[in-house]
Amino acid sequence: MEGHHPAVEQYLETILELEESGVVPMRARLVERLGVSAPAVSETVKRLEREGYLTLDGDRVMHLTETGRAYATSMLRRHRLAELLLVDVLKVPWSQVHEEACRLEHAISPTLEAHLVTLLGDPGACPHGNPIPGSANAVDPGPLQPLSTVQAGRSCVVRRIDEHLQTQIVHMRELESAHLMPGQEVLVGETASGELSVRVNGVDVLLEHDVAANVYVTV
Ligand SMILES: [Zn+2]
After folding, report:
1. Are residues 128 and 182 in the same domain?
2. Facing residues of 199 across strands?
């Protein structure tokens, strides 16, 4: 599928991201995440099914075939390498690189990818803590849980920011300015009116529940 339309590449990658988020991949989720109409999603999903990249089961859940998964994985790999290039080399702010990488990833050929891997030292994770598929340096941080589920009074360490949250630039800026990034220790406080209070480096920060639900930590 080399040279396929970026939109199609985005579909397969998004299905893989849904799996990573623990969300059942239904077409309605693609409508939400890709911001396209339901008929357009149905049309493209039908095409992907016909071309052997996914199957739909009786419950209308999408399943990537081996080919579809290989393709989605290579896109996600390029996405995360691109994010690292943007942060480490081009010094683009951490909160902004996801969006830029979404565009850049479609332009990365296997040759350029190999150069990126060499330049970046075959990194194991993206700047948001998500594993880079196929890396020899991938690290397993252990069992992760959403920050929103950590008991008040406990400390935890931020490990990864879900791809879906990365699309929400306002929230990403909040996380960046509060230093809520991978490796950061956080003391969890109380939840009140849908907001979770956390203490980071002695500073209290309020997070919306949906934001905290997409920040994964180890306790
Ligand atoms: Zn990303």
Report:
1. no
2. 187, 204
Do 87 and 16 fall within a single domain? yes
Both structure tokens of 75:
């896109």
pLDDT digits over 83-119, tens only? 999 999 999 999 999 999 999 999 999 999 999 999 9
Cα(203) to centroid(ligand 1), Å = 27
Predicted TM-score (pTM) of this structure: 0.91
Please, which residues have CB less than 5 A from ligand 1, an ion?
98, 163, 166
CA of 210 to the centre of ligand 1 (A): 17
Q: How far is the CA of 43 from the centre of ligand 1 (A)?
A: 26
d(C-alpha 91, C-alpha 100), whole Å? 12
For the chain, give the longest Cα–Cα distance.
Answer: 55
